[in-house]
Design goal:
mainly alpha, about 75% helix
Length: about 220
């Protein structure tokens, strides 16, 4: 019974990883390869943009910068401290792996796929990046997942709320401030999802993560 449940969970996670990888590639093909869909992406993104130099624009800029190197370093040390306090070394290793792998994946993709995609579509006032996916969103979501992963199961609901709020704030910030298209944020989420699924599958396979503990609090 236990082995059967473990096998099913691992299969679902591997399927999830495949779906995220496929979705990331499909988004790139659609939003980079189709002018019509890329224009739709720009139009939808434009609805969320703040007026330059407005209060909302400054707030969005602040939120986006929560995933700059300095805050991320503090978060990394915080995750290490929590993992030590909770005695979760293997979960810390897995979380670190997701954070590093997701960010490296995003940076490689950004370098390979950088080109003037609808440059100026949102107006010259916005410092829109032309790289897919969003690096700031990747860093924030990966860090949020890391917090959830190292947290003991009985407290994971709170960890999910905190990590999710952080990731959502950064994702909204980069869109509202005009740093990224919405497709860039979605792509970043799927990059993190890919590595998160693999990390969870590895922990379950090695017996470091109980099957039930992976999905719900005790």
């Amino acid at each position: 019974m236990g082995n059967s449940a473990r096998t099913r969970s691992i299969r679902r996670l591997l399927l999830g990883a495949f779906a995220c990888a496929s979705g990331t590639a499909l988004l790139a093909l659609l939003f980079y390869g189709s002018t019509r869909i890329a224009s739709f992406d720009a139009r939808v993104t434009a609805h969320f943009l703040a007026t330059p130099d407005s209060g909302l624009d400054r707030l969005a800029d602040f939120a986006a910068k929560l995933a700059e190197p300095a805050p991320l370093i503090l978060i990394a040390f915080g995750l290490i401290a929590l993992a030590v306090v909770w005695n979760r070394p293997w979960h810390l290793v897995a979380a670190g792996g997701v954070i590093v792998a997701a960010n490296v994946t995003t940076q490689v993709m950004k370098a390979l796929m950088a080109h003037p995609r609808l440059q100026g579509a949102l107006g010259v006032s916005y410092p829109i990046e032309i790289h897919y996916p969003s690096g700031h969103t990747t860093a924030a979501l990966a860090s949020g997942f890391g917090l959830w992963l190292i947290t003991p199961p009985r407290w994971r609901t709170w960890a999910a709320v905190i990590g999710g709020a952080y990731g959502l704030a950064v994702a909204a910030g980069v869109v509202i401030a005009g740093w990224h298209f919405i497709s860039d944020v979605i792509g970043a989420a799927m990059v993190v999802g890919f590595w998160a699924c693999l990390a969870l599958a590895a922990l379950i396979q090695t017996g470091k993560e109980p099957v039930r503990g992976s999905w719900r609090t005790r």
